[in-house]
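// run 5 | inverse folding | seed 20
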């Protein structure tokens, strides 16, 4: 099976795919990327699309983790 073909029964996004979604949001929306992902999550959840809502919530978490890591790398940890 080639990389572009997905099994029809498995619609779960992997960590690599969620990371790529986070990267695209960061590139397009900068410091607002987590908020954009939260908006997408809320919209999907309100429309009863739990799978996409959860996926976007996970993307928001990834963006926040990456932001925190960048801040710590730039400013150093509080214990330094």
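// decoded
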């Amino acid at each position: 099976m080639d990389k572009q073909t997905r099994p029809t029964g498995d619609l779960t996004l992997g960590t690599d795919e969620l990371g790529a979604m986070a990267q695209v949001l960061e590139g397009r929306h900068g410091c607002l990327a987590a908020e954009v992902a939260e908006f997408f999550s809320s919209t999907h959840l309100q429309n009863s699309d739990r799978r996409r809502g959860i996926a976007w919530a996970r993307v928001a978490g990834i963006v926040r983790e990456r932001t925190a890591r960048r801040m710590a790398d730039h400013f150093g940890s509080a214990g330094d």
